[in-house]
Amino acid sequence: MRGRDLADLMGRLSFTEYFHLLLTGDEPTEEQRFFLDVLLVSIAEHGMMPTNVAARMTLAADPGSLQGAVAAGILGAGPVVLGTSEECARLLEQAQSDVASGGEPAAVAGELARGVHAAGGRVPGFGHPVHRPLDPRAERILELADARAASGPHVLLARCLRDAVAEAWGRPLTMNVSMPIAAVLLDLGFPSDAAKAVPILARTAGLLAHLGEEQEHPLGFLMARAAEDAVEYE
Fold it and tell me: For 82-187, which CATH superfamily applies?
């Protein structure tokens, strides 16, 4: 595995460390392992969202297909439910490229935010239907990054974007968990392409937990009947 003997890795690396090795080709530093654990924990569970509902209802329809139910949930894990960490990473990379060319972080963030606002778009990583005015997961990630001296230029840009978005929109918008996930990953040397892999792995664990509960306390057909009662079909 990545040039290493699998038997040697067993008992020496944790699963998080092994995931890092598989994803990047390198064994993680202590900080990379610590924050990869933090980020995986932060987004593994998401409640009764469409991905988990789809997985539960698939298992109800085919109780022997655990893998099919997991697949059904993962297929629906797009940016609305999974988060926009990948888009955030690409935005931060673009912004950091402008900073490296001589721009000030606050000015670069301000120009990006104003441009998106003028175009009628949305800045990824901002806004949340539940967590207002702050996303506690995002704040915890930033707190740990500061405490462990892991905050680098991308975390700085994330904070500059928070201020710039508030100014451009004329009101504070919640920085959701996707932006700090991307910023910390980039500051720790992860490739931007890994930003989506982390939430997918985390959410798979959450799906398996929901499906374990579904096997013990079935809800799939209850949800189907509730939908029929709640929606008048024309």
Answer: Cytochrome P450-Terp, domain 2 (1.10.230.10)
